[in-house]
Amino acid sequence: MINVTKTYLPPFGEYTDILKRAWDKSWITNNGELVQELEKKLKEQLCVNHLLFTSNGTVVLQIALKALNITKEVITTPFSYVATTNAILWEGCQPVFVDIEPTACCIDVSKIEAAITERTEAILVTHVYGFPCDVDKIEVIAVKHKLKVIYDGAHAFGAKYKGKSLLSFGDITTCSFHATKLFHTVEGGCIICNDDELARKLLLYRQFGHIGEDYYSMGINGKNSEFHAAMGLAVLPKISDIILKRKAVSELYDTLLNFNEINKPVIPAETVFNYGYYPVIFKSEQIVLRVLDALLQNNIAARRYFYPSLNQLPFLKEYQPCLISEATSKCVLTIPLFYDLSETDTRRIAAIINQQL
Ligand SMILES: *Cc1c(COP(=O)(O)O)cnc(C)c1O
């Protein structure tokens, strides 16, 4: 079976060598040496002031909303993984969906201001597929209307915009290090900010609101373990090589797929792309279903990332139309892309797709 992604696993001995340091000390969680080392390396690599390693990329969205005191309306994108909307709902806030622009599939910033009401407190949007949102315009809007900005950077590890890590924008950026993501720690994530006071709040919220015997605030358990940090430390040195290999596969798809019949999102200018996904947009949902079926008959799994459009989730109270996102969701597939997808398999996948058009 060829899956849409395949988790990069380091040589087993490299993982256990790192893990052994925690093992020998019998210190396997609660801000251990490996967690601290991973946080330090990530902070240096991403050039950010504060970064906390967490148990996943969902709890950090919840912590972010909580730490910024967001309780009312949150402007968000309908084109993301369901965790983005769920976090807003889970925190008792109301998602206000603003449609996407059709080229990079991120939120259409020209439509944000019309959605702002006196109850709007934040903008929580996704750099979908690792394509940057228009962070400059979003900042202008946020300053003008006194809104907080949270970026769901779950797809953005390794991507850069205007020379800076894409994870360094907004009041807070979150990331997921789930096994299906480009950089992974099996399960895991992080929360990033530049403000010292906010960072202290995030730290407390991650670990039950206390440091040692001193209790400062409420909190939740968003910590992660030495086992997970060890995986991160083993995978991190390989990331640039993993990205290069994914780039080669992506560029081969670029030459093989029939772009008279297929559309591809356009990578915004001044972006260093991370090759985290290879999304393709077909002309109809019928073709998508046909392609999925043909791939599956060959033991190949593509995924409908992202479908449904989140404004159409069945448990939402009211329907807020987002026609571009709805149309894109019906027609999009991400196709297999991982570090060791062979040239033969890449060619086979492209041929099967082209046959269905
Ligand atoms: C994967 C993902 C998440 C959730 O991350 P987990 O680590 O699985 O909790 C959140 N947002 C987006 C956009 C994602 O793709």
CATH superfamily of the largest domain: Type I PLP-dependent aspartate aminotransferase-like (Major domain)
Point out poorly predicted stretches.
none
Apparent shape: globular
What string, H for helix and E for strand, traces the elements in order? HHEHEHEEHEEEEEHEEHHEEHHEH
User: Which structural class matches the secondary elements?
Assistant: alpha/beta
Ligands (ions, cofactors included):
pyridoxal-5'-phosphate
Spatial extent as radius of gyration? 20 Å
Compute the average pLDDT: 98
Q: What's the total number of strands? A: 14
Level-1 CATH class name of the largest domain: Alpha Beta
How many helical stretches?
Answer: 11
Please give a quick description of this structure:
The protein has 357 residues and is an alpha/beta fold. The chain contains eleven helices and 14 strands. The chain is 37% helix and 14% strand.
What does this structure look like?
The chain has 357 residues and is an alpha/beta fold. The chain folds into two domains: 12-237, Aspartate Aminotransferase, domain 2 (3-Layer(aba) Sandwich), CATH 3.40.640; 238-355, Aspartate Aminotransferase, domain 1 (Alpha-Beta Complex), CATH 3.90.1150. It has helices at residues 12-25, 33-46, 59-67, 82-90, 135-145, 196-206, 226-235, 239-256, 285-297, 323-331, 343-355; strands at residues 50-54, 73-76, 94-97, 120-126, 148-152, 160-161, 164-165, 172-176, 189-193, 210-211, 214-215, 271-272, 279-281, 332-334. A hairpin with a 2-residue loop joins strand 10 and strand 11. Helix 2 runs parallel beside helix 7. The protein binds pyridoxal-5'-phosphate (PLP). Pyridoxal-5'-phosphate is lined by residues 56-58, 80-81, 83-84, 126, 152, 154-155, 176, 178, 189.
